[in-house]
Design goal:
Elements: E1 3-5, H1 11-20, H2 27-36, E2 38-43, E3 49-58, E4 62-70, H3 79-90, E5 95-100, H4 105-110, E6 113-124, E7 135-136, H5 142-153, H6 158-167, E8 170-175, E9 180-188, E10 193-199, H7 203-214, E11 221-226, H8 230-237, E12 242-252, E13 264-266
Parallel strand pairs: 4-5, 10-11
Antiparallel strand pairs: 1-2, 2-3, 3-4, 5-12, 6-11, 6-12, 7-8, 8-9, 9-10, 10-13
Helix pairs in contact: 1-2, 5-6
The structure holds coenzyme A.
Length: about 270
């Protein structure tokens, strides 16, 4: 069973594999990740896919691994380890990071990933009001957003963010009157709207950006919040967006991730950081 590259023709098989593991058939998300990253898979001789992984590069310095799935019938036979190792090798010398479920974590630890933090998935209908502190981003803001994002993440996410501008339902920016000091976006998934990324100068600005986005949505919103953000987590809990599943942030060889993470409040999605 050899590892091959995935294309958009494999999208249905990816969704079947995800569905078989109790994950949603998140077509928009898979399409976004496959178009911007490198998907690898193992064909199931019986039809469909036995395993998947997606590698998303941020320039040559950093790369995210996501969508690690092995179909149940091929579980515990080493496919998961093989396909993640393949993605790591393809990443070259980049700093490789990922967000792990409790099921995936031992596999990554065996490959040399170390836990650098934990996050909780907050989900629910937002009960707060708009803060009115941000404005909708316009195409002319993209350059400044990309520069701010690079300062905070220490990575060149320009290609991903340029594509995210079309993928997102809305991107908002906040500033100090002179320049943009924070930005956040939201995008529609199957049954909820994900708020992310959230990059802000402080917690109050992060809350304002989230309020201005989430107050427009009448279905559940989802935000991934790091355990190093107890204030933000408590505020979300108090506004209907409550903590659920916990995951581990992991970096190959251990952290820390580059950039000024003090201004990083939420990832684009857990698959991308
Ligand atoms: C997590 C997941 C990808 C692991 O895939 P996998 O192919 O079963 O992984 P591996 O076979 O490489 O390793 C799993 C276990 O099988 C063991 N194993 C591997 N080859 C084996 C073999 N030939 N004989 C016996 N055991 C074996 C490994 O040592 C490992 O044991 P451990 O969990 O006790 O450490 C899979 O369970 C999955 O898709 N889960 C649902 C989705 C998910 O949570 N993905 C992770 C997202 S972060």
């Amino acid at each position: 069973m050899t590892i091959r590259e995935l294309t958009l023709d494999d999208l249905d098989a990816c969704l079947d594999l995800a569905g078989g593991r109790g994950w949603g058939r998140e077509e928009r998300k898979w399409r976004f990740l496959l178009e911007g990253g490198e998907g690898y898979g193992i064909t199931d001789p019986a039809g469909g896919l036995a395993a998947t992984v997606i590698l998303t590069r941020y320039g040559s310095g950093a790369a995210a691994i996501s969508m690690v799935l092995v179909s149940e019938r091929y579980g515990r036979q080493g496919l998961g380890g093989r396909i993640v190792q393949h993605a790591v090798e393809r990443a070259g010398g980049a700093t490789v990071f990922l967000n792990a479920t409790s099921m995936g974590r031992p596999l990554y630890e065996r490959l040399g990933f170390r836990v650098t933090g934990a996050a909780a998935m907050h989900l629910g209908v937002f009960t707060g009001r708009a803060a009115g502190a941000s404005r909708v981003a316009v195409p002319g803001d993209l350059k400044e957003i990309i520069a701010l994002d690079a300062e905070v993440t220490g990575a060149d996410r320009s290609e991903t963010l340029a594509r995210y501008a079309d993928f997102a339902a809305e991107i908002r920016v906040i500033g100090d009157g002179r320049e943009i000091t924070g930005y956040a976006g939201m995008w529609h998934n199957l049954t909820n709207t994900v708020i992310g990324p959230v990059i802000a100068p402080d917690t109050a600005a992060a809350r304002a950006l989230i309020s201005d986005l989430a107050s427009q949505v009448d279905r559940p919103v989802r935000v991934e919040v790091g355990e190093d953000r107890p204030e933000l987590a408590a505020w979300l809990d108090g506004h209907g967006v409550t903590a659920g599943m916990r995951t581990s942030d992991m970096v190959l060889g251990g952290g820390p991730l580059p950039g000024d993470r003090g201004r990083f409040f939420a990832p684009i999605m857990s698959a991308l950081g």
